[in-house]
Amino acid sequence: MTHRLAVLISGAGTNLQAILDHITAGELPATVSLVVSNRAAANGVAVARQAGLPVAVIDHREYPDRAAFDAAMIERIDAHGADTVALAGFMRILSPGFVRHYQGRLINIHPSLLPLYPGLNTHARALEAGDAEHGCSLHFVTDQLDGGPLIARASVPVLTNDSVETLSKRVQQQEHRLYPRVLRWRAEGRLQLTDQGVELDGEPLPATGMQIDAPA
Ligand code: NHR
Ligand code: GAR
């Protein structure tokens, strides 16, 4: 009766790897029931296969529209069972039907301190703005792109000579701590989305979610 995770990816799969490492280390009481990738060539597919996990490659280009692509994903995900569906670098905007189907079970990690910089190219936008801080956020997914209720955030400093590459690497180190921690809350039955908002251990979280920064 362990918590079943479906992980949706499009790219490198470093967050997937971090999730698997925490499961192996006994720090995340969950099992990955299925990895879904919309890109066959994504490195995350190799990560999943290496770990011996079931993988579904579902190429969005083979479907007439978003709703048909999303329906194909729902069919595969539900065939394997999912208590939580975790977007981990998944790059396709999800239709209202998909969001409704997994309402309260669907979580995304986004590479900015939301509500700052929803959408794409977040690191470049934080650098361009001259921000002193940047980071990542976990939120329940709604139809409002990157606008769903916040669960947790972690911040990092922006350094003087940062490039997109150096800054994104620093942010990703935090992603790899933050995602397994939040999934652990889910697996332990401690984290819910209610009509009142996000609750951890039955208590409402602040609108900015839990602040979880790197140990000094
Ligand atoms: N779907 C819904 N309904 N709501 C959210 O909050 C979602 C979502 C799907 C993905 C992740 C998000 C991110 O963290 C996410 C959040 C893709 C795009 C995008 O513009 C934007 C945000 C996110 C993911 N995708 C283009 C599209 O047309 C394609 C871009 C590409 O393929 O490279 O879907 O950043
Ligand atoms: C992560 O930094 C994640 O926050 C970001 O993509 C990267 C995926 O890395 N997500 C998005 O930009 C979603 N649009 P990974 O594949 O190595 O986990």
Shape: globular
Could you tell me the mean pLDDT?
97
Tell me roughly what share of residues is in helical segments: 25-40%
What's the Cα radius of gyration?
17 Å
Number of helices, where a helix is a run of at least 4 consecutive DSSP H or I residues: 6
Poorly predicted tracts of residues: none
| End-to-end distance | 37 Å
What can you see in these coordinates?
With about 220 residues, the chain is an alpha/beta fold. Helices cover about 35% and strands about 25% of the residues. The protein has six helices and eleven strands. It is globular. The site of ligand NHR has 16 residues, from β5.
Features:
single chain; 216 residues; alpha/beta; eight-stranded mixed sheet; three-stranded antiparallel sheet; 6 helices; 11 strands; binds ligand NHR; binds glycinamide ribonucleotide
Set out the fold topology.
Layout: E1 3-9, H1 14-24, E2 30-37, H2 43-50, E3 55-57, H3 66-80, E4 84-87, H4 96-101, E5 106-110, H5 122-129, E6 133-140, E7 150-157, H6 164-187, E8 191-194, E9 197-200, E10 203-204, E11 210-211
Helix pairs in contact: 1-6
Residues 87, 90-94, 99, 108, 110, 119-120, 141, 143, 145-146, 148 line the site of ligand NHR.
